[in-house]
Design brief:
CATH class of the largest domain: Alpha Beta
Distance between the termini: 21 Å
Strand order of the largest sheet: 3-2-1-4-5
CATH topology of the largest domain: Nucleotidyltransferase, domain 5
Oligomer: single chain
Order of helices and strands: EEEHHEHEHEEEHHHHEHEHH
Shape: globular
Bound molecules: 5'-O-[(R)-(carboxyoxy)(hydroxy)phosphoryl]adenosine, zinc ion
Largest sheet: 5 strands, mixed
Helix content: 40-55%
CATH architecture of the largest domain: 2-Layer Sandwich
Structural class: alpha/beta
C-alpha cells in the first residue's frame, strides 16, 4: 500500500449519496453529494427501500465524477473507505460493497467507517487547532447525542435522546405547521417572522441532571398550539427557541461531566440552524471554550468526512477485512481505541 496515495470515501447510510477523494494530507481533491430529496419528498420522509435503490443508481456516476475531477484512476488510490454503519442497511450494503469491490480489484486496503465517528472527527479536518479531548454535540435527523471525544476510536456517549432526534423533531413540527419536507430549513425561515415568546412551549429535561434529550413532548405541544390556532410563525419561533434552550442546557451539563474538554464541536444538519448556533456559542463562551462548527456542507452527511476518518484510521494502522459486515446499529463505544 502506498501511504502517500489519495483515499476515496463513500457515504450511503441515509438519504445522501456521496463520494470524495482526499490526498494523504487530508486536502480535498474532489467531493460530490447527491441528496435524494426528490425521491423521498412524495412520502414526507426517507423510505429505506427507495434510498437503497437510489444509492445503487447514483453511486457509480458520483464515484466516476470525483475520480475524474481529482484526475485519478482507481490504480492511483491508496485506500477506499466507506460508511459501514450505523444507518439504513440497504444503503450501507450498497456503499460498503461498492467500496470493497474497488479495493479488492486494485489490491487496496478497505476501511469500514462508523458514520458517527466520521461526524465526530470532521472538525479536526476543517477547524485548525482542534485537539482531543473535546465535547461533540451531534444533532441531525437521525442522531442527537453528547459525546466525549477523547481520541481516535475513543468515545464516551454522555447523553442521547430518549425519543426523537432533534432534526426529526424539527421535521415533524414542520409537518404539523404544513411545511414541506425536510422541515428544518423551512421552519427556520418561518420562525424568522415569528415571536419566540408568543406561544408557551415546554423545555423537556431542562435543568435535569445528566445530558439526555427528549423532544416528543415538545412536538405534542406544537400539535396542540396548531389546534388552538396560534400563528404558525409564532409556533415555529417558539419551537426553535425551546430547542435552542434545551440544547444549551444539555451542553452545559455535559461540560460539567467533561471539564477537560478543550472545545465544543457541533455537527449534524441541525447545526445549520442560526438560533441553535447562537445558543451554543453563548454556552461555549460561558465555559471559556471555542465553538467549532465545520462548514454546513461538511456538518450534514457527506463523503469527505468518511474519507477523512478512513485516513486517520489508516494512519493509526487500522483497516478492515472484506468480510466486514455493515451494521444498522453501531454505537461509538463499540469502536476500539487506537493505541
Ligand atoms: O445531518 P443531516 O443532513 O442528515 C442526517 O440526519 O444524518 O441532518 C438532516 C436534519 C433534518 O432533520 C433537517 O430538517 C435538519 O437536519 N436541518 C435543520 C436545518 N437544516 C437541516 N434543522 C433546523 N434548522 C435548519 N436550518
Ligand atoms: Zn449524519
Amino acid at each position: 500500500m502506498n501511504k502517500r496515495a489519495p483515499i476515496l470515501g463513500i457515504e450511503t447510510s441515509c438519504d445522501e449519496t456521496a463520494a470524495a477523494v482526499l490526498d494523504a494530507d487530508g486536502r480535498i481533491l474532489a467531493e460530490a453529494v447527491y441528496s435524494q430529496l426528490q425521491e423521498h419528498a412524495p412520502f414526507g420522509g426517507v423510505v429505506p427501500e427507495v434510498a437503497a435503490r437510489a444509492h445503487l443508481a447514483r453511486l457509480p456516476g458520483l464515484v466516476r465524477g470525483v475520480m475524474a475531477e481529482a484526475g485519478l484512476g482507481f490504480a492511483e488510490l491508496g485506500a477506499v473507505a466507506a460508511t459501514a454503519g450505523p444507518g439504513l442497511i440497504g444503503g450501507l450494503i450498497v456503499g460498503a460493497t461498492y467500496a470493497k469491490g474497488i479495493a479488492m480489484a486494485q489490491g487496496l486496503p478497505f476501511v469500514a467507517v462508523n458514520h458517527l465517528e466520521a461526524h465526530a472527527l470532521t472538525a479536526m479536518l476543517t477547524e485548525p487547532g482542534t485537539r482531543f479531548p473535546y465535547l461533540l454535540l451531534l444533532v441531525s435527523g437521525g442522531h442527537c447525542q453528547c459525546v466525549a471525544v477523547r481520541g481516535l476510536g475513543d468515545y464516551r456517549r454522555l447523553g442521547s435522546t430518549l425519543d426523537d432526534a432533534v432534526g426529526e423533531a424539527f421535521d415533524k413540527s414542520a409537518k404539523l405547521l404544513g411545511l414541506p419536507w425536510p422541515g428544518g430549513p423551512a421552519l427556520e425561515r418561518l420562525a424568522a417572522r415569528g415571536d419566540p415568546r408568543a406561544v408557551p412551549l415546554p423545555r423537556p429535561l431542562l435543568g435535569r441532571p445528566g445530558c439526555d434529550f427528549s423532544f416528543s413532548g415538545l412536538k405534542t405541544a406544537v400539535s396542540r398550539a396548531v389546534q388552538k390556532g396560534f400563528a404558525p410563525a409564532d409556533i415555529a419561533a417558539g419551537f426553535q427557541a425551546a430547542v435552542a434552550d434545551v440544547l444549551a442546557d444539555r451542553v452545559r451539563h455535559a461540560l460539567r461531566i467533561m471539564p477537560e474538554a478543550t472545545a465544543l464541536v457541533v455537527a449534524g444538519g441541525v447545526a445549520a440552524n442560526g438560533a441553535v448556533r447562537q445558543a451554543l456559542a453563548g454556552e461555549a463562551m460561558r465555559a471559556g471554550l471555542p465553538l467549532l462548527a465545520p462548514p454546513i456542507r461538511l456538518c450534514t452527511d457527506n463523503a469527505v468526512m468518511v474519507a477523512w476518518a478512513g485516513l486517520l484510521r489508516l494512519r493509526a494502522g487500522l483497516r478492515d477485512g472484506f468480510d466486514h459486515a455493515p451494521r444498522p446499529r453501531w454505537p461509538l463505544e463499540e469502536l476500539a481505541p487506537s493505541a
